[in-house]
Amino acid sequence: MISSLHRPTKAIIDLKAISKNIQTVANHLPDQVKVWAVVKANAYGHGAVAVAHQVESQVDGFCVSNVDEAIELRQARVKKPILVLGVVLPEEVYLAKDYGLTLTIASLEWLHLAKQLGTNLSGITCHIKIDSGMGRIGVRKQTDAETLIAELKEQGVFVEGIFTHFATADEADQRQFEQQLDFFNNLVTSLDHCPPVVHASNSATSIWHADTVFNAVRLGLVIYGLNPSGRTLEMPYHIEPALRLESALVQVKEVPAGTAVGYGGTYHSEQIEWIGTLPIGYADGWTRDMQGFDVLVDGQFCQVVGRVSMDQTTIRLPKEYPLGTKVILIGKSGNQSISATDVAEKRGTINYEVLCLLSDRVPREY
Length: 366
Ligand SMILES: *Cc1c(COP(=O)(O)O)cnc(C)c1O
What we know:
By secondary structure, the protein is of the alpha/beta class. The protein folds into two domains: 15-224, TIM Barrel, CATH 3.20.20.10; 243-338, Lyase, Ornithine Decarboxylase, Chain A, domain 1 (Beta Barrel), CATH 2.40.37.10. The chain is built from eleven helices and 20 strands. It has an eight-stranded parallel β-barrel with strand order 2-3-4-5-6-7-8-9. Strands 1, 10, 15, 16, 18, 19 and 20 form a seven-stranded mixed beta sheet that branches. Helix 1 crosses helix 3. Pfam families: Ala_racemase_C (PF00842), Ala_racemase_N (PF01168).
């Protein structure tokens, strides 16, 4: 989708805040731990290339979810290692060689398919993924991991790393986390030839289990300044949200009591009211369930009234405001603020999804 530059709706990204957040987290990790910035899904909506350029000198590498995201970074002249976290089918392995990417290899079956297809794996660098209890991708048995590593080496693959992913590092109940950690620890320590880079920590693990990092971390949400647990666990230190979402009033009108607003006529003004319209809607990722939520105008909360349309949202203003008045949807205005976590709570989802759903139509300004 082309981004809509000629309307007052935009996401403003504070790249310095991202750098600072990385530094803050790294300061709380043991020395010598490698730090990778996770910039999948367009850096959680912040712009993968801009974020990668900003932080490349600070980090040891990047993680993305698929080959196309990695190629985008290489085409933008990002030089540091890039680990593709998802499964890349053997047919696409040549791209890893062309672009110098590190692949995740997550099953013996994958290797057998590659052999069957005659895929040339020689010269590839990979990390082995262990499923320690997430139930998603990864090898579940120590013996399979051992076989996979040996067979990959035979094929001329450099097995640089081995890693796992926790399902509950952001939760108060530690039981599943401990089980996964034990499983991974036992597996790794019993390997005849353990790859040099061992990693298990996403943001939540890096924040609340800083003692259990192996020798690298994969930092996603926290570098963008949000708490990966929402409000379940408290951040042990301050991080700064890097994204602000703003728009502006493009129409302001006074309506008499009983005026219907929006599709379906779901809202009727109770008295004489000022209704403002913003050029943002669900096609921008400002979803329909934002009806009844608030935005900030002039440091005051103003309710979203009527349905959110594809391209427009209507709000109730306390008084008349001039056209062009700034409206904050995520961020600070005066003494008030609305966070992506607040938006997520209203939607019954997580702050990750709120950021990722901001569509390409919203220009990112740095
Ligand atoms: C997305 C992802 C991360 C980063 O997760 P955050 O919670 O955003 O830090 C780390 N590892 C894997 C395998 C992931 O898919």
